[in-house]
Amino acid sequence: MDWDLLAYDAAPVGIVVTAHRVIRGCNASFAQMLGYEREALIGQSFRLLYNTTEEFERVRDIGLAPLRAEHAYSDERMVRRRDGAQIWCRFRAQTRTPEEPLAQLVMSFAVIQDGPSVALTLRQRQVVSGLGRGLTSKEIARELGLSPRTVEDVRARLLKRFEVKNAAELLAHLTIG
Question: Mind listing the GO biological process terms from this record (predicted)?
Fold first, then answer.
């Protein structure tokens, strides 16, 4: 028995290997999480996980500096399943090529919450993603090219919508929903 292969394939989280944001290999958990057959994912761009090209590019850009500096990056993010449903995931990436971080990445995706109860707009997902990474409204605004007031408005609407008092409660609500 190949224990290494069993560990990879039977891992309770999705594991995927990419080269320049194209899927080169993945385990059964990753394919199942997204609603695909594994063979259908091989050779596909990671673009299929995001609703827009803008979101796909923005996600790439925010992880590049940490990948270069620390060879690793993590956050929480929404990804799209084959059926269009959104899944809230804990994402981790490790580059094998820090000088060109996207040339060879190993990533894991762990579902935090599945289903439509977390239906958020692109802007709301961007703000929640920043909050999940511990950023302030000013830092999120700088990253997204928005005014801090715009980020505060989005944040305030989310707090009201989910009937929570602060960002920590919002993230907890979205995580355990």
Answer: regulation of DNA-templated transcription
